[in-house]
Amino acid sequence: MTHRFRDLLALEPLTADELSFLLDQSKPFQEIQRHPLKKLATLRGKTVALAFFENSTRTRISFGTAASRLGADTMNLQAEASSLKKGETLLDTAFNLNAMKPDCLVMRHAASGATHYVARHLDIPVINAGDGTHEHPSQGLLDALTIRDRLGTIKNLNVTILGDILHSRVARSNIHLLGKFGCRFTLCGPAMWAPRELEKIAPGTPIRCVYRIEEALEGANVILMLRVQTERLNEPALSSDDYILLYQLNAERLRSASRDAIVLHPGPINRGIEITPEVADGPQSCVLEQVTNGVAVRMAILYLLISGATETDTHPALEMKPKESANASD
């Protein structure tokens, strides 16, 4: 089967084979991050438009770095400078960006489905960098790549997701991806953030909601922490002290998980609220590996969508490996 992608808007509709292909294509780009010279000419002459209608640090810089390391130029639109603030419609903004002839649009928006809406009207690849509470495909992929590197597999794992799952696009992308490889999920957080309806968001995937963190961590191979927005902790029903007492991941609670369990967090981290520094910086934490792998994953996505490459094409990162000289002695 030949894998070719027009856009990358969500992980839910992709098959396990397609997801494995994306992860495998990301792997050689990991090696590039360790090179003194990190620049390829793969997308030289191409332009990537970064349209972030919602504030972002890691994802925007990561996509920009990925484009640069592939040799592409970037054009940037950020939330605070957007013409949407002046009354321009989302589609008009997208049409104007498209009129500047980029080769790809990377878009983040606060409305679920916004990237799908724009993609239907453009003839260039569109990459979803996070849309509302729907999905964050590249984050799901970089998380899976990190898990596979650390544990050797993404199959049949016990995955615990802690925090504000209701509003999390990261949780949904992880569930849709890892669920296709036989993973089982335990969701844990305050009842208003982990309602029972979430057990049905991925039919066929074993998902359960529990409300005691010790129960949620028991037997977990992977612990995915979610950022808790501090403004939601000002609600009378849930103070920051309440959250720390009931749901904070600390070293003592981490011992309830499997001995080889790893901890992931998409950032930014609220240290001392959802996680303690000793866990965030400890040996089981993969937080910085996730950031590094994010560049590799996004390089793979941009390469595949802009170049139209398939598995039959030579991977550009492999061409950087030193070759033995033809004049080398036997």
- Shape descriptor: globular
CATH class of the largest domain: Alpha Beta
Through-space gap between termini: 41 Å
What's the CATH architecture name of the largest domain?
A: 3-Layer(aba) Sandwich
Nearest-angstrom radius of gyration?
20 Å
Q: Overall mean pLDDT score?
A: 92
What oligomeric arrangement do these chains adopt?
A: single chain
Structural domain count:
2
Spell out the helices and strands N to C: HEHEHEHEHEHEEHEHHEHH
Structural class: alpha/beta
Tally the beta strands: 9
How many helices? 11
User: Could you give the order of strands across the largest sheet?
Assistant: 7-6-5-8-9
CATH topology of the largest domain: Rossmann fold
Explain the layout of strands and helices.
Layout: H1 16-32, E1 47-52, H2 58-69, E2 73-78, H3 90-99, E3 104-109, H4 114-119, E4 126-131, H5 137-151, E5 158-162, H6 169-178, E6 184-188, E7 207-210, H7 213-217, E8 222-225, H8 240-247, H9 251-254, E9 262-264, H10 277-280, H11 287-307
Parallel strand pairs: 1-2, 1-3, 3-4, 5-6, 5-8, 6-7, 8-9
Helix pairs in contact: 1-5, 1-11, 2-11, 5-6, 5-11
